[in-house]
Amino acid sequence: MCVVPPQTERSKIPTMTVLEDEDVQTFGTELPAMFDGMKLAAVAAVLYVIVRCLNLNSPTAAPKIISRNTLLSRYLFKSCPMLSKEYIPPLLWGKSGHLQTALYGKMGRVNSPTPCGLRKFLPMKDGATATFDLFEALGEHSTGDDVTMVICPGIGNHSKKNYIRTFVDYSQRRGYRCAVLNHLGALPDVELTSPRMFTYGCTWEFAAMVGYIKRAFPQTLLVVIGFSLGGNIVCKFLGENRSNQERVLCCVSVCQGYSALRAQETFLQWDQCRRLYNFVLAGNMKKLIQSHRGSLLSMSSSSIGDADLNKLYTATSMMQIDDKIMRKFHGYGSLREYYEKESCVHYIHNVSVPLLLVNSSDDPLIHRSLLAIPGRLAEEMPNVMFALTEHGGHMGFFEGAVVFPQPLTWMDKVILEYTNAICDWEKKQKACQRTRDPDEMNE
């Protein structure tokens, strides 16, 4: 006898759902589609990050130029088309200031030449030995004049650096003699002869090199070039004494920070990974100083002791190294005094020769607030021109199509274009003066 339970009881008994073949097939086809969607989302996320990191959406543009409306500035705009022409970095990576900076730091330039020069040794009054490399021109200058470029490289750099070699070779082939300062202590095969190294704004070695050039080549005219830290040194040198500007046609400064005090304050910020760059620069300086440990400690007149050098091991920023070591080379009582006295911001307004200041907006080492200094200077002084590019990083300024950069950078070309224009300008000014003199005498 079969007993059927009541409806209320049957509802409590669990039932098994049977999937039809058609349902299984439908569910199976949805799984690959779902995974494909996740893959597409991941790819889209990666592409978004790449686009943001490489700054691919940033448009290319001509440099922003600030200058007074003068006869010279109008002549420069006419004679220097690159100042008004769009700067186009390599498409894939050139709009990233970090990559431009990193590639410059690692390779300097592409296929760097090896110019042949002669090293000069200059004894200093305090016992130090300054060195510079002299490269003769490989042709006649377009004006027919004897023109020498006196070049001050970036922090801890010298004439063997790829970017210097490339620029020197380019300049030589256009009729310029080149003299390149080797920062005191920067050359690994040259020992220190006094208990000090180069500092942020010491102009003694650069002044010694310029003095030698003026004596050795009495007819030569000078073009002063400074890269990064070298830009601070050359502007400070010209502004320290008006006699330093004698026979100087013009000055070009690239990627400097103008005020060491304000620059080092921004170096402690994480914005644009600036603190990471600070750590890397500090590491490089520690190695350089430690390589001269024996020389710094062996001299009786040294202001640096063994305890000072031992503190370098724990230093993680340039400010700590400057405070523990660098300021003591010249007897500064405090870090603030060192930064104030060694910054060109207090001297640059004394420069009266044509002055081109070049910076990049995406330079990760130079905070945007520092760029107000050259901007105001160009607005107030008729001899100053400030060129600010949208891209270029710190000392990068690579040009190219998509991936591979060209051997010469925008920076190399602009410096030569500007200096050529100034040389032509001065030549024409002298010619005009000669034609006016007889008339003035007859009157």
From TrEMBL:
A Gene Ontology cellular-component term: sperm flagellum
GO BP, sorted A to Z: acylglycerol catabolic process; medium-chain fatty acid biosynthetic process; medium-chain fatty acid catabolic process; sperm capacitation; steroid hormone receptor signaling pathway
Chain ranges of the AB hydrolase-1 domain: 148-401
Residues forming the catalytic site: S228 (charge relay system), D363 (charge relay system), H394 (charge relay system)
Example of a GO MF term: acetylesterase activity
Reactions catalysed: an acetyl ester + H2O = an aliphatic alcohol + acetate + H(+); hexadecanoate ester + H2O = an aliphatic alcohol + hexadecanoate + H(+); Hydrolyzes glycerol monoesters of long-chain fatty acids; a triacylglycerol + H2O = a diacylglycerol + a fatty acid + H(+)
Primary location: membrane
Keyword Translocase: no
Localization, UniProt: Cell membrane
Entry keyword set: Cell membrane, Glycoprotein, Hydrolase, Lipid degradation, Lipid metabolism, Membrane, Serine esterase, Signal-anchor, Transmembrane, Transmembrane helix
Keyword Membrane: yes
Topology with respect to the bilayer: Single-pass type II membrane protein
EC number: 3.1.1.23, 3.1.1.6, 3.1.1.79
Pfam entry (one): Abhydrolase_1
InterPro entries per record: AB_hydrolase_1 (IPR000073), AB_hydrolase_4_CS (IPR000952), AB_hydrolase_4_sf (IPR050960), AB_hydrolase_fold (IPR029058), ABHD4 (IPR012020)
Gene3D superfamilies: alpha/beta hydrolase
Residue intervals passing through the bilayer: none
Enzyme class: hydrolase
Stated role: Progesterone-dependent acylglycerol lipase that catalyzes hydrolysis of endocannabinoid arachidonoylglycerol (AG) from cell membrane. Acts as a progesterone receptor: progesterone-binding activates the acylglycerol lipase activity, mediating degradation of 1-arachidonoylglycerol (1AG) and 2-arachidonoylglycerol (2AG) to glycerol and arachidonic acid (AA). Also displays an ester hydrolase activity against acetyl ester, butanoate ester and hexadecanoate ester.
Family the UniProt entry places it in: Belongs to the AB hydrolase superfamily. AB hydrolase 4 family.
Protein name: Monoacylglycerol lipase ABHD2
Gene: ABHD2B
